[in-house]
UniProtKB/TrEMBL annotation:
NCBIfam families (UniProt xref): proV (TIGR01186)
Domain ABC transporter: 7-265
Listed PROSITE patterns: ABC_TRANSPORTER_1, ABC_TRANSPORTER_2
Family recorded in the similarity comment: Belongs to the ABC transporter superfamily.
Protein name stated in the entry: Glycine betaine/L-proline ABC transporter ATP-binding protein
Alphabetical list of InterPro entries matching this protein: AAA+_ATPase (IPR003593), ABC_osmolyte_uptake_ATP-bind (IPR051921), ABC_transporter-like_ATP-bd (IPR003439), ABC_transporter-like_CS (IPR017871), CBS_dom_sf (IPR046342), Gly-betaine_transp_ATP-bd (IPR005892), P-loop_NTPase (IPR027417)
Pfam name, any one: ABC_tran
Keyword annotations from UniProtKB, A to Z: ATP-binding, Nucleotide-binding, Transport
Organism the protein comes from: Leifsonia williamsii
Length: 439
């Protein structure tokens, strides 16, 4: 197992029934799930997944898809009929019960749908329970539980009983208990499905914040596609016991592997899933500040656009130039392009979701510039590309302009004339025309 992987399942099957091994053999030979009469019920069929350390990996599927059985295979509550599961490099299939308990105690914590809190224990004692099982001293358990209690926003509630807390607060206690155990992997089985929508969204956001600060590996089970898209770094979609597609939310939304996945994602709010990085295009109307005004004007002439983005050393975005300003520089014989660079370019991050791009796009005549943390230009998003992405229109069926603004205010012929008048020996002017200019 790779050092970058926290959980790995290889060709895992789980069949409940009289003849599970025979059922697996039939499935491997191509039998359908419905063709196992008398042999058993196949809950998980040939499932393989690799969960990287520090990511939120979501397993999504409708009721009966096999996702809850799969998570029980990942934590060792069920033994696979065939296949192998490893957690932090250690096998949990085919090992003695004592060894399995040790691996689970050190590496795996669970967060359940219905909280599973101990009703007679205080909030603080519930949080410390996993450490108690691990044999930690009482003082250490209390200190760690108090620390995690603050982390999940329940400071001051440690002496309360679970019955005194709201559903959302009880689920925070469940998450805190898993965090207090300080295991590498958190398995969350429909952890937020019992909460009302507002509290559910709040818990989703807090989970992302906790994961970002603590770097835990989380395997999250859900039947809610919007929840999967919001939480998941990657998503595995299950149907009838099989994983039919694994990918990032953007990949699943823009390139569904099957008609089933396509129908599943058709009603997803694309504006809150797709990011700038997923729809950006290479910048064509692009010049370097070192190239000077003449190079900028040639680029705009060739692309038939009235503006261009300007980058400096290391592709750092400096701003944009307009055709009329550059032409004036050429006429006056000025060579410093930086004199006419304008800083009114709308800049966005690669991780900004599309819903955050609409307002800056509407207010900008130029495409949105996508930059990284060092202001290096990564790509651009023309307004028409943004609208196509929001409307789920394939850009392959429409022409995407580089600059979304009215046509160039100065005809291309006029730009060529300026080039000829200011530098008849320019290599951009054909030899015959250079002779005509001299004449």
């Amino acid at each position: 197992m790779s050092e970058t992987l926290a959980v790995e399942a290889r060709n895992v099957y789980k069949v409940f029934g009289r003849k599970p091994q025979e059922a697996v053999r039939r499935l491997r030979d191509g039998a359908a799930r419905t063709e196992l009469a008398g042999l058993g019920t196949a809950a998980v069929i040939d499932a393989s997944l690799s969960v990287r350390r520090g990511e939120i990996f979501v397993v999504m599927g409708l009721s009966g898809s096999g996702k809850s059985t799969l998570i029980r295979l990942l934590n060792g509550l069920l033994e696979p009929t065939a296949g192998e599961v490893r957690v932090m490099g250690e096998p949990i299939t085919g090992v003695p019960a004592k060894r399995l308990r040790e691996v689970r105690r050190r590496h795996i914590s669970m967060v359940f749908q219905h909280f599973a809190l101990l009703p007679h224990r205080t909030v603080l004692d519930n949080i410390a329970y996993g450490l108690e099982v691990q044999g930690a001293p009482a003082a250490e358990r209390r200190a760690r539980a108090t620390e995690v209690l603050q982390l999940v926003g329940l400071d001051g509630w440690g002496d309360k009983l679970p019955s005194e807390l709201s559903g959302g607060m009880q689920q925070r206690v469940g998450i805190a208990r898993a965090l207090a155990a300080d295991t590498d992997v958190l398995l969350m089985d429909e952890a937020f499905s019992a909460l009302d929508p507002l509290i559910r969204r709040e818990m989703q956001e807090q989970l992302i914040e906790l994961q970002a600060s603590l770097g835990k590996t989380i395997v999250f089970i859900t039947h809610d596609l919007n929840e999967a898209m919001f939480l998941g770094d990657r998503i595995a979609v299950m149907r009838d016991g099989r994983i039919v597609q694994t990918g990032t939310p953007e990949e699943i939304l823009t390139d569904p592997a099957t008609d089933y996945v396509a129908s599943f994602v058709q009603d997803v709010d694309r504006a809150r899933v797709l990011t700038a990085a997923s729809v950006m295009e290479p910048a064509r109307a692009l010049v370097t500040v070192a190239g000077g005004p003449r190079a900028a004007m040639r680029t705009m002439r060739d692309l038939q656009t009235s503006a261009a983005l300007v980058v400096g050393q290391g592709r750092r975005l400096l701003g944009a130039v307009r055709d009329r300003d550059v032409m004036r520089q050429v006429r006056e014989g000025r060579g410093d392009l930086s004199e006419v660079i304008r800083d009114d370019v709308a800049v966005v991050s690669r991780d900004d979701v599309l819903s955050e791009l609409v307002e800056p796009s509407v207010g900008s005549a130029l495409p949105l510039a996508v930059v990284d943390g060092q202001q290096r230009l990564l790509g651009v998003i023309p307004r028409v590309t943004l609208l196509a992405a929001l409307g789920n229109v394939s850009s392959d069926t429409m022409e995407i302009p580089v600059v979304v603004e009215p046509p160039a205010t100065v005809p291309v012929d006029a730009m060529t004339t300026v080039l000829r008048e200011t530098a008849p020996d320019s290599p951009d002017v054909p030899a015959v025309e250079r002779e005509e200019v001299r004449a």
